[in-house]
Design brief:
Elements lengths: L6 E8 L2 H15 L7 E8 L3 H5 L9 E7 L5 H21 L2 E8 L2 H6 L15 H9 L6 H5 L1 H9 L3 H20 L4 E4 L2 E4 L4 E2 L1 H11 L6
Parallel strand pairs: 1-2, 1-3, 3-4
Antiparallel strand pairs: 4-7, 5-6
Length: about 220
């Protein structure tokens, strides 16, 4: 593949280091794929508050940002926290002209990671229950999620993934969201954004799909 490929830039704000490490891994995988039609540059800032990011940004240099975050739970404190994030994302458009798109996971980013290797269709009661799925998916024996999220451990899990696994995660995510629609689960609409209150549900795959389409790795 020619080294003269155009580079397309993608900007993310993320809640933690695991999301950031994943996006940098994804960038490296795309940029070494012979079938790509573009290279990608990914700017992923660990910033839980969209407002803190966009107040120092401008629409010309950063016209679009994707915020990766978790729904956490249906408890009021988490619901209010999540909707406050959506409030800030809306402000980015009205105050700075920056389009902020949502890439959520319900409950957690671990759902997206598990879907690279296996289905995760059942509703869970707590995010810690993802640990069993992670251990099964990656052949690990992590004792808790903190151990899994340790840099060396998480990156070892990433080393077991390929771009084909990402495509499978997109497919499994589509199946989850289609099932939610068929089951007529309540879709919450707020400030121009939409999400399911019940888990499992996610939209992070939409951002990854868009990147893959633009880079010629999957068909539209």
């Amino acid at each position: 593949m020619s080294e003269k490929l155009e580079t397309r830039k993608y900007t993310f704000t993320v809640e933690g280091e695991t999301e950031q490490w994943y996006l940098f891994w994804l960038r490296d995988q795309i940029n070494t794929c012979p079938e790509r039609t573009y290279n990608v540059s990914i700017d992923a800032k660990v910033q839980q508050s969209p407002k803190k990011f966009f107040k120092n940004a401008n629409a010309k240099a950063t016209p679009k940002v994707i915020h990766i975050c978790d729904v956490e739970s249906n408890d009021k404190v988490h619901t209010d926290q999540f909707q406050n994030i959506l409030d800030e994302m809306k402000e980015a458009k009205t105050q700075k002209g920056i389009v902020y798109n949502l890439g959520y996971s319900n409950f957690a980013f671990e759902l997206w990671i598990v879907l690279h290797k296996r289905d995760c269709n059942g509703s869970l009661n707590h995010r810690k229950q993802y640990l069993d799925y992670i251990n099964l998916a990656f052949g690990e024996k992590f004792e808790n999620l903190d151990q899994y999220k340790h840099g060396d451990n998480f990156k070892r899990c990433l080393s077991k993934l390929k771009l084909e696994d990402v495509k499978n995660a997109i497919r499994r995510s589509d199946a989850i969201m289609e099932r939610n629609r068929q089951d007529q689960k309540k879709l919450i609409k707020y400030k121009g954004y939409a999400y399911y209150r019940e888990n499992p549900a996610l939209s992070i795959h939409e951002a990854v799909r868009e990147m893959f389409i633009e880079c010629g790795l999957i068909k539209k």
